[in-house]
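Late entry, evening session. Most of the bench is empty. Finally got around to the prediction I had been postponing all week. Sequence below, unchanged from the version circulated by S.P.
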Amino acid sequence: MDDESQRATDETDHTHHGEDAHSGHDESHTERRSEQSLLETEAESQSTDEADHGTHSQHDDHDGHGGMHEGHEQMFRRRFFISTLLSIPVLLYSETLQEWLGFSVPAFPGSEWINPVFAVVVFAYGGIPFLQMAVPELKDRAPGMMTLISMAITVAFVYSLASVVFPTQSAFFWELVTLIDIMLLGHWIEMRSVRRASSAVDELAKLMPDTAERITDDGDTEEVPVSELSEDDLVLVRPGASVPADGIVEEGDSDVEESMITGESKPVSKEPGDEVIGGTINGDGSLRVRVGATGEETTLAGIMRLVEEAQQSKSKTQVLADRAAGWLFYVALGAAVVTAIAWTIAVSFDATVIERVVTVLVIACPHALGLAIPLVVAINTSLAARNGMLVRDRIAMEEARNLDAIIFDKTGTLTEGEHGVVDMVTVDGVAEDEALALAAAVESDSEHMIARAIREAAEQRDLTAPDATDFEAIKGRGVRASVDGNEVYVGGPNLLTQLDSEVPNHLQRFADEAGQNAQTVVYLVRERELVAAFAMADVIREESYAVVDALHDLGIEVAMLTGDSQDVANAVANELNIDTVFAEVLPEDKDKKVQELQDEGKLVGMVGDGVNDAPALMRADVGIAIGSGTDVAVQSADVILVQNNPMDVVRLVKLSRASYRKMQENIVWAAGYNVFAIPLAAGVLAPIGILLSPAVGALLMSLSTVIVAINAQLLRRVNLSLPNLPEAAPPTDAQAAD
């Protein structure tokens, strides 16, 4: 793909799911800005110490989102441990806990100040970060998670200090410190999970070696930095060493470990002419590799870009959780107002009313809601990456669960994509060898698989193709060239339509029989006269049968799209039990077929090679590029399936459904706590003697957070290796998350 075309594709891609991405961006921008500001403040306080540290390696200089999340993680981790240690005296000298747990601690002069003093220190050190992160939310008039947390700890702090001056029935000191500790722990867990997902980029960067052995013109080797390698350099890859760049094997045989890039569980045999990927590990043999791509053009760099894009995208469920926090802020305020009015009317305004209002505001803080989605997303990302699925857009991953129909491009996806000439017929006066040699001449400059098949057939017959000039590819129809002064064409049925050529009866019968046998027919036209027809066979992939059955079992309609004739398409569709067939479709019309299904109200996924199918991938609700692990420049797909295995489409849908189910469960657990706790804290059951104390509220909040974290971890148990269908054999390359 040329640079201009690539830029056009990139620009178009930025509009894909634009509205959803924009809304996610708006919802998360304030939080990212506030956390980044806090991190910068934290970093400034440590700048002197960090200046004394030694130099970093090349890989440590990678500072994207992974570095930012690591900074957040370390900050929250440090504050959590220090705040927890400072909270111990508060817990020990809490009368409520002493009564609950049946213990006592010695009192001494001034011990009554332990709780307020240590609580103030914990609030100042552990609670202030949440207040700082709430400021941008309030400035933007978009209260969210940080505002909710800040309101809870501030109310508890002010009320507790007031209780020292104006003694009340209870103070919230132990609830205050445990609330802050839980918030810090939750944010530490969240940042740790996100950083682990983000660190995928850093781990990928570490795969690429720092140096390479370049072979000089005189045959010697010199060690040079990988950054100095250029295209067409010849490098030596010793046994056990990392391949320094993408390239082609020129000499040597070896098995290369590619699992870290493609998910392929077994080492892949490499011999002269085979492609190798930078960052993969060479086996026992020695290889000489001609460099084909370096730097940002390598497969590894492309995968890193895709991972970063996926981390920056935000799912609709995450946006919903963020909005829920904002709604909960107003619900808590409303409930507090109603509580104050109701209790004032019932018992007149006194300390009990204030305590009820404070309890409502304190326990409204739903940290579990903040963990509900990020934990699932982090595990989802790990599972997907380890099973060869590169997700560029989390919205697409989430939408995959709702797909009503999936369109497969036939050639190379449902079929092997390797054609061979299996039969041919000519008009009277033209010998088969003459026709085949003429077709090979026209196809001499084409890299299309049909062109290769025709040339290979000519070579097998030891035919010498005549010279061809003025070669021209006719998009979606075939090729044209000048041979011995004659204008000669080779192409499919669309070519005959364009040339308005008549098909002799015996050639038509030949084409009909070939179509019934799921064979593609290619025609040879000389001076607009049809002279020969070639039958090309494309074998159906063995796993395609299982894929169609598995998708049907999941309730998804399967469609097939191809430029082949209707007969060929129908034969393949009947063999695979495909529901809908689009045949004789030109590349520029593929997206229209996607639109046809969308117009029927269906959510449509498109599976293609990511290059020729770019418009259709863009048009689809979920664009899936299959077998494009070594072509990561593809920007039109939402999901890249690294291995050329259509069964990964089934695994994508299964993972999407399992992940969304966990997200829903977590939101229910997180929000359920508030639905249950706020009315009880407000005192709706007070007439029958049931009141939720701040202590019990804090306990429920902790339990909710723990349940959400455990439930997210259960996603790791999803079995992606088995479609749970008797017809679908388990893929041998499925891997579980760590």
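Two things to note before I forget:
Confidence is low (pLDDT under 50) at residues 1-32, 45-67, 628-634, 722-738.
The chain has five domains: 68-205, 230-293, 309-380+657-714, 389-414+541-642, 418-539.
Will write this up properly tomorrow.
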